[in-house]
Amino acid sequence: MKQLNIGLVGYGFMGRTHSNAFLQAPRFFDLPWRPVLKAVAARNEERVKKFAENWGYESYVTDWRDLVNRKDIDVIDIASPNDTHHDIAIAAAKAGKMVMCEKPLGRNAKEALAMTDAVEKAGVPNTVWYNYRRVPAVTMIKQLIDEKKLGRIFHYRAKFLQDWTISTDLPQGGEGLWRLDVAVAGSGVTGDLLAHNIDTALWLNGPITEVTAMTETFIKERKHTLTGKVEPVGIDDASAFLAKFANGSLAMFEATRYARGHKALYTLEINGEHASAFWDLHDLHRIQYFDHKDEGRVRGWRNVHVTDGDQPYMKHWWVPGLQIGYEHTFTHQFADFVQAAANGKSLPPTFRDGLATDHVTDAVLKSAKSRQWETVATA
Ligand code: SOE
Asked: What is the pTM of this model?
């Protein structure tokens, strides 16, 4: 069987989720290629060595440039901070490698466009790790929409709430806290959390045409881990926007890292003329589903436990009723990527899909500044 030699960049939270997926996917899915954890790149030698040993990478390097040009690597997986995505993806594409990239694709649509052009010009299979599309319950909502069970869509509602940056003592920048440093992250919750909400929304409900937004930075200065100085905070701590979809439906989106008590509350709801569906990441294996076509006397919200073999992805796992979790979404995406790549194809969300999300987040940030409705560019 042909090997798929993987070169991973980054050993943080996402480096772990992806490595776990590379190891699990061939055990649970029938893959056309055998994934091989060939090498990992990260700057801190002691830590990258330990990471390589822990996850079973054959080798490690301390500069990603040494990875992208290696002949024994087929796919470059970018799991490093946002400010590195652009250069690594373009170099990898130029070297003819397939590319998988963490979200958001670029720090802004300009970066994402250059990355998209690069992979498309090189003709290399690509994907962006918007993993929540592959929660079985979310994939099932997509199936129900595609089967026209919801009918014409009127409303879309999504939020992503966290509370881990409320402390004024929390510094910005450096490992683990680069999400608070605008130079590295590109934006705050708009690119980090709303981007997830937007990717799923575009997938489920089609293009967003215009937005009107507000953002706020609650803590204006934080000590920078790398400089040791107190510096202005450039990220948005909270972001909310109204949107119009090309299909005529209306939407509300909200994300924050200041919602005390909420750790990763991603919820979405979609209301159609026949049916509505609701999903909550904290209860990720269930969908709440209301179908107006049910007989009136017993009509009501159904609580569907998405764990059965005829529900998306579940036949690959345990037995009906036994649920799976967060890490499986990455395994699903990687398994789907290998299938697509073996057929010479990219896997949605492709870089072009990632660009579409960056166009929306750019428009959100622009609208928050202009206080006007802003048109979303097409990818
Ligand atoms: C932020 O806290 C974060 O880790 C995001 O960066 C991830 O994309 C999201 O899935 C969970 O929250």
From this structure: 0.98
